[in-house]
Amino acid sequence: MTDRNPPGFIGLALRYPLVGTTVLVGAVVAVLSLGGQGGAAQGMASIYALSVALHRAGSMIKGLFRGRWGIDLLAIAAIGATVAVGEYIACLVIVLMLTGGEALEDYAQGRAARELTALLARSPRIAHRESGTGAILDIPVEAVNPGDVLLVKPAETISVDGELLSEAGTFDESALTGESLPVERSRGGSLLSGSVNGSEAVRMRATATAKDSHYRMIVSLVEEAAASRAPTVRLADRYAVPFTLAAFVLAGAAWFISGDPVRFVEVLVVATPCPLLIAAPVAFLAGTSRAAKVGVIIKNAGTLEQLSKVRTAVFDKTGTLTQGRPLLVEVRPAVPASLPADLLLQLAASAEQYSSHVFAASVMAAAQDRGLGLLPANDATEQATHGVAAQVGARQVIVGKPAFVREHTKGFELSSLKGGQVAVYVGVDGRFAGSLIMSDPLRPNAVATLARLRGLGIREALLLTGDAASTARSIATEAGMGEVLAECLPEDKVKAVAALTARPVMMVGDGINDAPVLAAADVGIAMGARGATAASESADVVIMLDDLAKVAVAVDVGQRTLRVARTSIWTGILLSLVLMVVASLGLIPPVAGALLQELVDLATILNALRALEGPKHGNRRRSRKPEPNTAPAHHQAQSAGHGPA
Fold first, then answer.
1. Is the pLDDT of residue 391 over 60?
2. 89, 322, 351, 575: which is deepest, by most CB within 10 A?
3. Are the C-beta atoms of 513 and 531 separated by less than 8 Å?
4. What is the pLDDT of residues 293-332, one digit of tens each?
């Protein structure tokens, strides 16, 4: 949002009227004092300061009714005390520090939220739609429908998710992924809303509305994150109660021992630490903003604190630890062969048109690679996590897990598999017809990610999957994980996570059938890059790109943010306590004390902004190669269908 206020002091005064008024009153008081009108100067300063104190007292009382403890009481008492002992210059300085705190907080929170606000500000508003006559019409992005052909101009932000119609294009996805290098897409490649087009105009076909597009989901998550308050922030509020009591006790003791009421004032003047009110929220907002910059959306500030304490990491297999793009290794017809291999694959792929499981897209792609067209199918039904049945021409085709196919066919036989292989079983017309041997390799960075998590203090790592036990053990061994629970249904996963004792527990998954366990975990992380909406809605953290390493980045950001927040809070408290002790000895005059306290506030808030600094190992540049054309996103992302999960 553009600031319409004029620059300089006038703009500051218009934006923060109390600050401007305080500076103006201070100037008049200075003129009166220099002109020998000390009584008038003292009276004006005292009346103005007491008026501000009464105004802040009203706000403080309203906050108390909402359960919010602040430390305005100390500032109000300091104003009253300085007026009572005639330290009218000090009272004006306190008022300036108090009212200037609003400007300081705005600055700090603006810096902390810069990545979040940048994401919101870049949200596309207009799309260029081709009409039937070839004319280009500018329309609101909300009016775009799937199937619309859009023109994306050079350096323009893509408004909705879609498919590239031009031969090739180069796109900047840094706002979505944190990756600074541009990526290349060829005809048929998927485009994400929020990406920035390169130097040439391209044509695309919309595959989603603006509301259901990738960037809109990011914006919604960011708005939710920015509105939340972390437990540590609420804890900071509670620190205000003992701190306030300690300040009054120390000030009263200094007055009693010295017999000088000014000593009471001198202690209170240095006992108004903004860090308790500002530093912790700024640190958490900065951590959330930093995570968003590298493609990790943390949906609420409390999750940062949970991330910092995670002791057990649980991973789904397909699409999480593995690449999620299984490759067909072999078509293995039943013996004696009832169907040729190509026909078996064609029938299975034709039935898989109606499945949402990640393996369905791979089976279809393998058939198309062999030049086998997909046949029309009728009466398709899918039993989630088990399999799909469809009438393909005159044949009844069953595709899915062994138990599902065994139940509906005769002559079923299990296939022998090597490590890391998965079998998708096929039945035709009530008889077992064979199996499709698939391989879903481990992600290249899985081993390094797990090692980094161990370095961050995560003691246990568990593979939790619906896949066959042999395949799950093979992947776990390759990844360096000792614990495996295989052949789990969604409800089994929830029970397994609930039974874990080393908590908090972090669950990482990507599919619809991961949504219940993501919600049940202490911290649910969804690999949401491929549009797994249900999983993303259930999760506390959404990784907006297909990079497992960002799981460790999320934990690292959480740990760093909590360290910075606690350091900021305790730095403010300890420095203020030191100043109060020194002031109780009569060594800090009231005016100097007010200025010193503002320096303490500034130091702790700047320290809180250190949470904007990124993790040291999480966002290294790497080369990006053009991605191969893939099946539609809904086939790639969701693990609701049959087969391993």
1. yes
2. 351
3. no
4. 787 888 777 788 889 999 999 998 877 888 777 889 899 9
- Which residue has tokens 């320096």? 599
> pTM higher than 0.90 for the full model?
no
254 token code pair? 């200094």
Q: How many CB atoms lie within 10 A of CB 353?
A: 18
**What token pair was written down for 144?**
């775009």
Q: What pLDDT score was predicted for residue 537?
A: 65
CB-based contacts of 409, cutoff 8 Å, min separation 6: 398, 427, 430, 431, 432, 433
Q: How far apart are CA 174 and CA 151, in angstroms?
A: 21
Q: Decide: helix, strand or coil at residue 183.
A: strand
- Distance between CA atoms of residues 212 and 145, nearest Å: 11
Instruction: Give the three-state DSSP class for 609.
Output: helix
Q: How far apart are CA 397 and CA 400, in angstroms?
A: 10
d(CA 106, CA 495): 45
Q: What is the pLDDT of residues 434-455, one digit of tens each?
A: 999 988 888 889 999 999 999 9
Burial of 117 (0-12, 13-18, 19+ CB in 10 A): middle
DSSP state of 147: T
DSSP 408-457: H-BS--PPP--TTEEEEEEEETTEEEEEEEEE-PBPTTHHHHHHHHHHTT
State residue 346's pLDDT score. Answer: 93
For the chain, give the percent of residues with pLDDT over 70: 78
| 471-526 confidence digits (pLDDT tens) | 788 888 888 888 888 878 777 888 888 888 888 999 998 755 676 788 788 898 88
CA-based Rg of the chain, rounded to a whole angstrom? Answer: 32
CB-based contacts of 291: which residues, under 8 Å, 6+ apart?
Answer: 297, 298, 553, 554, 557
User: What residue ranges in 510-558 does DSSP mark as E strands?
Assistant: 523-527, 541-543
Residues in the chain: 645
Is the preceding peptide bond at 504 cis, omega within 30 degrees of 0? yes
Alpha-carbon gap, residue 517 to 227, rounded angstroms:
25
**What is the average pLDDT score of the chain?**
79
* Structural contact between residues 554 and 541, judged by C-beta atoms closer than 8 angstroms: yes
Is pLDDT at 400 greater than 50 in this prediction?
A: yes
Which segments of 472-545 are extended strands (E)?
Answer: 483-485, 505-509, 523-527, 541-543
pLDDT per position as a tens digit, 369-378: 899 988 988 8
CA distance 519 to 494: 9
Pairwise pLDDT comparison (623 vs 85), residue with the higher score: 85
Per the listing, tokens 């009421």 go with 261
Would residue 516 be called left, alpha or beta, if left means φ above 0 and alpha means ψ between -120 and 50 degrees? alpha
Q: Which position has the token pair 């919600």?
A: 519
Helix (H, G, I), strand (E, B) or coil at 484: strand
Tokens in use for 644? 């391993």
Return the residue matching tokens 């527990």: 505
Asked if residue 206 has pLDDT above 50, the reply is: yes
Catalytic annotation, residues: 316
